[in-house]
Amino acid sequence: MSDRKDPLSSNLAMWGGIVFCLLFTGLIHFIRPYLPQIDFAPDTGASHYYWKLPTPNVVTQASAWISYLIHQGFMWGLIWKARKSNLSYTKGLHGINIIALVGNAVFVIWHVFQTAIWYDGLAQDVSVWSSQWSVIIMLVLILHMENQRRGVFFGKKIPFLTNTGQFIRKYHGFIFSWAIVYTFWFHPMENSSGHLIGFFYMFMLLLQGCLFFTRAHINRYWTFSLEILVLFHGTLVAINQGKGMWPMFFFGFAGLFIITQMHGLGLKLWQRWAFFSLYIAGALYVYGSTGMAMFHQITWIPITEYAAMFLLAGLVWVGMKITGRRNTKSVSSE
Fold it and tell me: Which tens digit of pLDDT belongs to each residue from 262-284?
């Protein structure tokens, strides 16, 4: 594939986007105290989402749903157009990338106004678990798609995942866009530490979604950073909740790094062993201090994600058999 000459490189756009993500996250932190304050209903447990209007109405709920549907339609339309245009991967931005970047910046800014005027997000009408699982599904599909490049278990590739992974790669843009945009509009723009960390993560994922068919989109260090951010997000949110569950999130997501993710970074053997040794030593130290009886917690997140990966692969395989789709090797990814 040849690179065309573009006025703005995708790497420059990526770094500029990261600065925007950081600045806008800071902006939410500073302006939220000046927005209308809500008298929230009491927290009733894990299935309860605290940050929503206690007395919603049709207008407040419609503001979130209409914003979400327009944003979702915008992204799906751009992905469809990009696929139809048979774009090649370039160092520079395509015109459609610029439209995506500007459009998503507008939606991010609009979300601040929507929160200030009507407040509610999609959380008013759907389960809190739907937001969490939409992101989990995205992370699981990444594990699946990356099998051919870095393997799944300590660099070993799983042959069964080859064709299903290629099929998922063909349509991943639509699925990932749904997961990100849905989660983005699920939450009002609050400035709790959990919200700020989460919105920064969403901004970064939206940025990645704008860079389709560019070299930045498939930069392995950039894509790895998006995967590993969930480790910091999950751990910091758990620490703030104060229930002593942070080691499960930290060592669970770090376990995915040790088992799968670090094997796509081109690390030397001694470096991989160093990370593995630090992981084991850290887990033994933390659980040795808090109680070895809960050491098995470090396996919960990896087992869940790998089980979900094989389950989804099985469902995709059945769907491909039913529809007669056997091979998608000729299809490029978004």
Answer: 999 999 999 999 999 999 999 99
